[in-house]
Specification:
The protein is an alpha/beta fold. The protein has one domain: Peptidase S8/S53 domain (Rossmann fold). It is about 20% helix and about 20% strand. The protein is built from 8 helices and 20 strands. The protein has helices at about 10-25, 130-135, 145-150, 170-180, 210-225, 245-255, 390-400, 410-415; strands at about 40, 70, 95, 105, 110, 115-120, 160-165, 195-200, 230-240, 265, 270, 290-295, 300-305, 310-320, 325-330, 335-345, 355, 360-365, 370-375, 380-385. The strands form 5 sheets. Strands 7, 8, 9, 10, 12, 14, 15 and 18 form an 8-stranded mixed sheet that branches. A hairpin with a 3-residue loop joins strand 14 and strand 15. Helix 2 crosses helix 5, helix 4 crosses helix 5 and helix 5 packs parallel to helix 7 (about 390-400). The longest helix is centred in the N-terminal third of the chain and has 18 residues, at about 10-25. The chain is globular. The chain starts with 7 loop residues before the first helix and ends in a 24-residue tail after the last helix.
Amino acid sequence: MRKPIIPRSFTALVVVGLLAGVAACSGGIGSYVPSGGERSTESGRALPGGSPTPTPMPGETPAPPPHHHILSGRALPGQPTPTPTPTQAPLVTSVLCTAGVGANCHVLQNTALAPLLDALGILIPGYHPADLRSAYGLSPLPLLSGLLGGGSTAPNGPTIAIVNAFDDPNAEHDLGVYRNRMGLPPCTSANGCFKKLNAALQKGPYPLSNRGWTAETSLDLAMASAACPTCRIALIEAADDNLESLAAIVDKLAQPGSAIAPAAISNSWGAPETSDVTELEHSFAHPGVPIVASAGDDGRVEFPASSSNVVSVAGTTLSRGLLSGWSETPWTPSGTGCSGYFVAGSWQHTSCGKRSVADVSVVADLNPGIAVYDSAAGGWVVYGGTSAGAPFIAGLFAAAHDYPSNGVGAAPVYAKASHLKALAGSTISLGSPSGLGAF
């Protein structure tokens, strides 16, 4: 029996329609959540005695387990193909690392959006790498890379070092899921792109896990990948969240002849300034190595962002208009202000005569937030906070690979500040990235 002939014009219309649908949905369209809402606190600290599982704060009612929704055009093994309809949810900001004696990681989560166990890229809420690269003037990802995967070529560029506390046992797996769905090339230990190391810069043994810092690691790996898809990544895990432990790793990484030889070091953590932090300043004094620190989410000055030896990153609210394109405004909770202990570098002129925070700014607002895959949280989640900025800026430094051998802190950025986008009506930083020119 002769098969019916389908006109080429009809086939072309189908293809065009599919491509238009993909373009309309890319970058998490439909993931916008209303601003406002409440801010809750979720403990992210390990219990004494080595328990990796945080407990509710005194008097706090434990939250019920999240409802896991699967938004996918294909079934998971052993499951029927689901077809739920996503719904909007209010914005609820959860602090995953609570302030205490040690460093506080700066990741936040919109817990009003239930985690997605599995989802097609076009249905994942939050900003995607393609969005971030568009907003910050970086080269676009290959067409349809989100549908076809990121290819098989192993990244072999400069190394971004990410310093965090506690172990993320699923770091490599979760990074693999994220990069595959987002159209980025695979970054694995097998292809030489990814390394996970302990405080001694060895491949194990690793410390205990901690829920808050696991979220931090997932966000950091995602943002570093978005900024420089061709860079290699080294995740170094401190045994605890003491500032001394974390600073010691930074010091070791930045030493001449370091086995990692990072092109940039990311630190998405900090603690309120006290006189004690001055004793740790030497750990960040390494000319020729850009050391980046997030400014914090509580409107105060924190260390190490307050050190003149680091590049401090504040937060913004990033929006995209249908016709007007991208716009950015300062994010109110972002850490900012003058240090009480550190003098300003010669490149920074401040009214207070001290080091001023911050130097540059990157999206931190949870509305709509950053799409991240974190299996410990249940799958695809929306994270934010100034934690997003440190690994992203570190990734830009690594991608540009142009930091001078005698460069100190943000001095090279101030010398090339004309390549940044000024934030309207803001004095919290020089501005946000616009390509790699400032890095």
